[in-house]
Design brief:
Layout (H helix, E strand, L loop, with lengths): L23 E3 L2 H13 L4 E6 L5 H13 L2 E6 L19 H10 L4 E3 L3 H4 L18 H4 L3 H16 L3 E5 L3 H13 L5 E5 L19 H6 L2 H14 L4 H14 L4 E8 L17 E8 L2 E8 L1
Parallel strand pairs: 1-4, 2-3, 2-5, 3-4, 5-6
Antiparallel strand pairs: 7-8, 8-9
The structure holds pantoate.
């Protein structure tokens, strides 16, 4: 395999060239494994960012973290069917592979793994990975299939890639904790790094699903981070957790959200619910709510 990194040295006229080097595109597990083994044999370390595509700046910030910790970077683009319920948005989930790959080229990514579904779930594959405890509350309650699908595909991806580090966003805080537990329990020798949530200028967390929102709903969506900020301030002032979460939910409905799956104050690592009463130590504030037919999630420290 040729070295994917092209020389971006000055053009003959002395102007710097900004043409981005295309990442090597891999479609099969066998090709991914071979490429990663070749990098390892050459003494290079690997940083991995698993994604479902529809990339935005939040994903690219995870790639920058991977690049800071490894010689070569790999991004997977795979809309994982097992983490969607039959009623959910698998069919309409945004797919933009060509734009994604060109954004990754711009960002200096070395390898892209974009397999077809049969490659990750070959005929006859039945094994699923469950992470009891941390995956059960919050998202686990409202999307019971979700973490089993995530844990299964992440276990497969980490196993095939064999990366030194893998980076996951704090935007999906509970997912990050599930993956940390999974990697520990399955003895997967990849170090998990967390990337802070990137936000739009008005505070809305970047998400591929923001693309579903109408212009009006996009304006209303900023009520979600604001509700969490308001809850954090309320708790910092000694307010009661149950009272604070009820007020935050009411603020969301008032702002135009159709319903609130949860607004919770939880232990940052185990996601066990905290309260009632005032906050007694570090906590994570997490919310999931529906706006304009789209389910938005967000979280922050308290
Ligand atoms: O966070 C995501 O995009 C997905 O849940 C992940 C981790 C890539 C697994 O499909």
């Amino acid at each position: 395999m040729s070295d994917p990194v092209q020389d971006l040295s000055a053009a003959p006229d002395g102007q710097a060239q900004h043409a981005a080097a295309a990442p090597v595109l891999l479609r099969t597990r066998a090709d991914l494994r071979a490429a990663m083994q070749a990098e390892r044999a050459a003494g290079r370390t690997l940083g991995f960012v698993p994604t479902m595509g529809a990339l935005h700046d939040g994903h690219l910030s995870l790639l920058r973290i991977a690049a800071q910790h490894a010689d070569r970077t790999l991004v997977s683009i795979f809309v994982n069917p097992t983490q969607f319920a039959p009623t959910e948005d698998l069919a309409r989930y945004p797919r933009s592979e060509v734009q994604d790959i060109s954004a990754l080229a711009e960002a200096g990514c070395h390898f892209v793994f974009a397999p077809p579904v049969e490659e990750m779930y070959p005929a006859g594959s039945v094994t699923r990975v469950r992470v009891p405890g941390v995956s059960e509350p919050l998202e686990g309650e409202f999307r019971p299939h979700f973490f089993e699908g995530v844990a299964t595909v992440v276990a497969k991806l980490l196993t095939v890639a064999g990366a030194d580090v893998a980076v996951f966003g704090e935007k999906d805080w509970q997912q990050l904790q599930v993956i940390r537990r999974l990697v520990e329990d399955l003895c997967i020798p990849t170090r998990i790094l967390a990337g802070p949530t990137l936000r739009e200028p008005d505070g809305l967390a970047m998400s591929s699903r923001n693309a579903y929102l109408t212009a009006v709903a996009r304006q209303q969506a900023i009520a979600l981070p604001r509700a969490l900020d308001g809850l954090a301030a309320f708790l910092a002032a000694g307010g009661d957790i149950a009272d604070g979460t009820a007020r935050a939910a009411a603020a969301l409905l008032e702002a135009g959200f159709a319903s609130v799956d949860y607004i919770a104050v939880a232990d940052p690592a185990t996601l066990a619910p905290l309260g009632p009463g005032p906050l007694a130590g570090p906590a994570r504030l997490l919310a999931a709510a529906w706006l304009d037919g789209t389910r938005l999630i967000d979280n922050r420290a308290a």
